[in-house]
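Running this now, will post back.
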Amino acid sequence: QVQLVESGGGLVQPGGSLRLSCAASGFTFSMAAMSWYRQAPGKERELVAAITKPSGTTNYADSVKGRFTISRDNAKKTVYLQMNSLKPEDTAVYYCNTKRGLPPRDYWGQGTQVTVSS
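Update: finished.
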């Protein structure tokens, strides 16, 4: 079955960097579009970044453009989110996502906490 396992979260000071990883299994990763979402306390889950297949075209939320980079390694079946110049407002649980099947169904990882604080 589809499994997504995130890692790489933690506590970082404002202006710092983190790289999140999402290891995927149970589907043909190279043919799947992948996304990162985040959910802050009291807020709705929001799309942060997405990467298509197989061209790897990316798109980003306006709030993270120029600071975050999504990438994928099809050989390792892993999608990454490089986060630079982190701000306190980036604090959230970050989730990996893919959509499979017809009609498309969302699959989520367990989430990884990112806290930006001095």
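The mean pLDDT is 96. More later if anyone needs it.
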